[in-house]
Design a protein that fits this description.
It is a single chain. With 369 residues, this protein is an alpha+beta fold. Helix content is 57%, strand content 15%. It has 11 helices and 8 strands. The strands form 2 sheets. A 5-stranded antiparallel sheet has the order 4-3-2-1-5. A hairpin with a 3-residue loop joins strand 2 and strand 3. Helix 1 packs antiparallel against helix 3, helix 5 runs antiparallel to helix 8 and helix 10 packs across helix 11. The radius of gyration is 36 Å and the shape is elongated.
Length: 369
Amino acid sequence: MENVLRPLIVVGGSVVLTLLLGWAVDRLLQRTDRRHHETPLWGLLRRCRLPLQFTLCAALLRGSYDQAELTKEHSAGVGQALTLVLIGATAWLIVRIATAVVESSYARYATSHRDAARVRRVRTQVTLIQRIVIAVVGVVAVSAMLLTFPAFKAAGASLLASAGILGIVAGVAAQSTLGNLFAGFQIAFGDMVRIGDTVVVDGEWGTIEEVTLTYLAVRTWDERRITMPVSYFTSKPFENWSRGGSQMTGTVFFHLDHSAPVPQMREKLHDILLDCAAWDGRDWSLAVTDSTPSTMQVRAVVTAKDADDIWTVRVRVREQLLRWLTDHHPYALPRINTATALIGPGEIGTTLPAHDLMRDGHAPRTGRG
């Protein structure tokens, strides 16, 4: 009877005590969260209940397993397994606590600051800090698990003896990885690019969606994801439309006939902008910026509060101005002249090329009349 009750008491008592402690800690955090609702930390710490229970249960079983006198012939193996579970559960708990602290700090900063650029910068930094903590805790946990095996302890001396050679080989093999790692730190704390920034990379317009220690994910306007190494952003030029503020200035170009009514186009542009909710009202203009023998270039300048709105304003202006010109001033659209070419002095007797046809489609005429 004692051989049956002893394991039941040890194992059952450990499980029951773990459940009671987990419930008590959760109730305490819930009550604290209601009292201090302005701080999201206590509510986020409630996510740690499951890893906390695993850690407590593994610790209690590991400490009381010898008293249970269960499977004495396999006690060493069971103790080793419980130690590994305890190390893994502890690492899980530390990661959850660190994540809760980081997310709470970011949430409080985001609610107290209205500068979107600074908020995106802090978000990028805390995201990378969170990933660094997870990586460090994971490496330490795996190392601690390996050191529990006697074979790895014996191999430790030989590994330390050849550490110099292994360090050189690892450094050469992981050169690109380490470069990306340090580039990730440079991006996070150098404020080069942040999560939510609008960028143009290799001719692709998109938004920074994810930043890790080794790569960045750019979400394009057509919902594609471009994954690029972080070293690209530290070694090659790119456009950051969100740098220094989110306000944008955009241009719309028109190639029109020389007879286009520019003053009336300017008035129509103003009317279009007044009816466009995406225009922020800061500035606008319309001017002739270039000319060719057959057309002239008209540039419309508009402004908006961010990259998404500037795109909306530009396409709205382009569409409505072209439609207005087509309906009311069709002569202003670019045309291909097919009239008979004028012959200059001294060119009597020459023949025009066959492609210089008259407008009515007759054969080309020569200088002899």
